[in-house]
Amino acid sequence: MPRIEKTVFISYRRTNAPWALNIFQYLTQHKYDVFFDYERIPSGDFEQIILQNIRSRAHFLVILTPSALQRCDEPEDWLRREIETALDSRRNIIPLFFEGFNFNTSIIADKLTGKLALLRSYNGLDIVASYFPEGMERLRTRFLNVALESVLHPASRLAREAAKAQKAAARSASPANEEVLTAQQMFERGEAAEDEEEKLRFYSEAIRLDPTFAQAYYSRGLAREKTDPEAALADYDEAVRINPDDENALAMRGALRDKLRDFNGAIEDLDEAIRLRPGFGWAIMQRAIARDHNDDLDGALEDYDEAFRLLAFAPSMGTYVLLFRARARQRNGDLQGALEDFNEVIRRKPNNGDYYFERAVVRMKLGDRAGAYEDGDTSARLKENSG
Which ranges constitute the DSSP H helices of 41-156? Predict the structure, then answer.
């Protein structure tokens, strides 16, 4: 008779930790060996601990809420890497749908690129908060109660020890109560809302229900930035206070501090975000801008170079970096380098009159009067047509 495997890996976005914890505790009570990344694992050990624990377990549960796949268009996003590893190693993949998750929603469908597109072909299970025990029973008796023939790869000693420590920490944690789970629902409604006032209302309700909900403070900060930057800064402060290792909150606070002309504070936050997540292209770009504003042109140019290398996968972001680098090169006296960057910016964005005007200035300084006049004429024509 084929053996029923009882080894499980839970993949989830940090935002959805309360759901992951309750699933972990339910399954361990029913004698399942569950890996749950409850305490943050250092980035240097990620490959050996997380990915090996996926390969060494038969079942792969992925918690999907409307916001879960938001960053999965980034090649190095950890949730994307976990799902891709489960696909590659042919685990029994079970998507768990929360808060009305739907693969056909445009904001979700757009993230299912490359290998990730295969995820929609797996049978998933809808989990309704008010019927959580019934959902878990169905998960255990129907979705996990299957015989698997795939070979499980033994994990290394480090991966096994890390799994043991994570399980001990998660077992001792108190299960998420009804208010915390309701806060999760409010947060997801805020993520899905299109009206800014609605977003703020849902995020604020999530915070009222769970004052330790760092991600809700972070998202409310994002929603407040344009209209009330000081309130947004206060929300980022609280998100970082609750979770000092949240590189995204640190990076956003750094970018906002730069806009508020606190350049040293911005650089400090962005340094920490990059330390926590080496290769964090967006944060490196923002640090370049903050260094630029702080008259550290050499440091800014070094960061612009690195940001452009890291953000090549995102053409619009790469163009943004090129534009800022062109301006920094111009101020630093590297007119030829500035011209090369403006050439590429205009190749990518040929209908923006401002870029032609900026290139005209560089061409004039280089002695190319004919090219400068040509760019000036093109700039004027494009601005007239757009106005």
Answer: 46, 52-55, 78-88, 106-109, 132-138
Who wins on pLDDT, 37 or 118?
118
**Rounded to an integer, what distance in angstroms lies between the CA atom of residue 198 and that of residue 105?**
19
DSSP conformation letters of 166-214:
HHHHHHHSPPP-HHHHHHHHHHHHHHH--SHHHHHHHHHHHHHH-TT-H
DSSP H or E segment with residue 61: strand 59-64
Instruction: Please choose, from the candidates 337, 335, 255, 336, the residue with its C-alpha nearest in 3D space to the C-alpha of residue 292.
Output: 255
Q: Which of 140, 172, 204 is the last residue of a domain?
A: 172
Q: Which residues of 197-224 are buried (b: 16+ CB within 10 A; e: fewer)?
A: eebbebbebbbebbeebbbbbbbbbbbb
Give the tens place of pLDDT for each residue, 181-217: 899 999 999 988 889 999 999 999 999 999 999 999 9
CA distances from 31 to 9, 13, 24, 152, 338 (A): 14, 25, 11, 19, 63
In angstroms, the CA 91 to CA 150 distance is 8
d(CA 225, CA 196): 11
Q: Return d(Cα 5, Cα 371) in angstroms, integer.
A: 70
Provide the residue range defining the domain that includes 322: 314-387
User: Taking all residues of the chain, what is their mean pLDDT, rounded to a whole number?
Assistant: 89
Give the tens place of pLDDT for each residue, 100-149.
888 888 778 888 888 888 888 898 999 988 888 999 999 999 999 887 76
Mean pLDDT of the 331-351 span = 95
Q: Is residue 295 part of a domain?
A: no
Question: How far is residue 139's CA from residue 150's CA, in Å, rounded to a whole number?
Answer: 20
Structure tokens of 319?
């163009």
Whether residue 306 is contained in a domain is answered as no
Whether 67 is in a domain gets the answer: yes
| Residue 82 falls inside a structural domain | yes
Cα-based torsion angle of the residue sequence 309, 314, 315, 318 in order, rounded to the nearest 10 degrees: -40
% of the chain residues with pLDDT over 90: 62
CATH number of the domain where residue 22 is located: 3.40.50.10140
Q: Residue 348 belongs to a domain with what CATH number?
A: 1.25.40.10
Identify the CA nearest to 64 among candidates 111, 28, 32, 30: 111
Domain boundary among 172, 200, 219: 172
Buried b (16+ CB within 10 A) or exposed e, 153-173: eebeeebeebbeebbeebeee
Count of domains observed in the chain: 2
